[in-house]
Amino acid sequence: MAKANEASAMDVDEHQINPKFSINVLQMLKSAQMQHGLRQRDYTRYRRYCTARLRRLYKSLKFTHGRGKYLRKAITESIVTEAKDFDFGLLNRFLHVVLYTAERAWSHAMEKRHLADGPNARQRIYLLGRLRKAVKWASLFAQLCSIKGDSRTSLEAEAYASYMKGTLLFEQDQNWETALMNFKNARAVYEELGKYGSVENQVLCRERVEELEPSIRYCLHKIGQSSIQTSELLDIGEMEGPALDLFKAKLEAVMAETRSQQAASMTEFYWLGHRFPITNAKTRVSILKAQELEKDLHGSAADSMPSEKKLAMFDKIFTAYHDARSCIRNDLVTAGNTENVKDDLNGLDKAVSALLGQRTIERNQLLVSIAKSRLTRYRDDKGDKATKPEELVRLYDLLIQNTNDLTDLVSSGRERKQEEVDFSEEYILKGLIFRAERL
After folding, report:
1. Where does the record locate the signal sequence feature (predicted)?
2. Sign of CA dihedral 40, 248, 111, 50
3. How far apart are CA 138 and CA 158, in angstroms?
């Protein structure tokens, strides 16, 4: 009995000498990201928040780097292991410095990755350098947490470091097996942690597992251990979350490369009985992108697709066709006095403009159906947001104007083929239907 009491006293003394702290890493980072820009994918804003947060932490710790020559003070294991009568609040702030330094480096890399025209060669080198910094600081964070943190904190820190390592390799397009191993390690930790703790924490862990899944499947696809097709990866890319943004950027690059390969064999564009040669590679890629989106929009799965997703797809189609028109009109400027080339380019511009008109009408018809459903709900439930009849009238006015513009465009020109005549008559009838529905 005396020995048992002595052993118990020794355990208590050991716990007092080596107390363990706890940080809910995932919850803290998710809250910071959502509140400071990443809800809108604004990595610049989040990076600035991390910088400001670090400045406050350094000042509160009196851990500044001097006013004259810059001499960085390193946060090492000795701060954790050699501290006596350690204040947990102070320790937490030192660890927050390491964590937010990793977050700042990662957000800076993601900021470069999501530039409008994509990172150029120099920016890509800088991007990879920032990701290496993020891996370095995340690894240090995991190392420090393993010394003084409880088991949960240490596991979360290891998962965070594994994710950063996987992200770096993912961006480098190399060592896919190692990247896969790191992503799987992170997923395994979050799967286990998702079984315990508060409901909020379990939900966050499950969300993180779902965000990691596409990257794991992409790595399997790259090393040839998965039969998943690129089109299926596109469906995965519809998911949301900061952990998926690099995957989406990579996937878009893959799709752009695939379109470029397909565009090499696309020499002509067929429209209402006409054949227009396409010599500009950028024009071909833009048209192919629009056609891929149109297949998804009019495919078998379109009936079950939410209206918000359809509207987003229409926006992407419009962007692709506008890019094509911009390329065509630039070619017209540089075509000189070559009449045959100018005629072909003008015909192609007319065809793309007509397709834009058709998709605009389809989009406005979708808006009418949404407005009508809200009008029905208003009659059934007075508390729901109402669609006023004036809004429907405005939408029908737009549709009438769209059909008039489209028929005028297709009717222009001297040599009209029968397909163009039939097309014009079809949209004249649609315009009459829209007028009747407006009334």
Report:
1. none
2. positive
3. 8
DSSP string computed for 287-305: HHHHHHHHHHHTSGGGGGS
DSSP 8-state code for residue 198:
-
Q: Which residue, 288, 278, 270, is CA-closest to 419?
A: 270
CB 430 within 8 A of CB 403: yes
Report the predicted TM-score, pTM, of the whole model to 2 decimal places. 0.59
For 315-344, the pLDDT digits (tens) are 888 998 999 899 988 888 887 777 788 888
Structure tokens at 52: 């400001």
What are residue 65's phi and psi, to 5 degrees?
A: -105, 20
Return the closest-CA partner of residue 366 out of 298, 418, 432: 298
Radius of gyration of the chain (CA): 29
Strand partners, 149: 21
Q: For residue 315, give the amino acid letter.
A: D
Give the whole-angstrom CA distance, residue 381 versus residue 387: 12
Q: What tokens does 382 get? A: 């007075």
CA dihedral over 315, 320, 326, 332, signed as positive or negative: negative
How far is CA 327 from each of CA 1, 80, 113, 298, 320, rounded to the nearest angstrom? 88, 60, 25, 26, 11
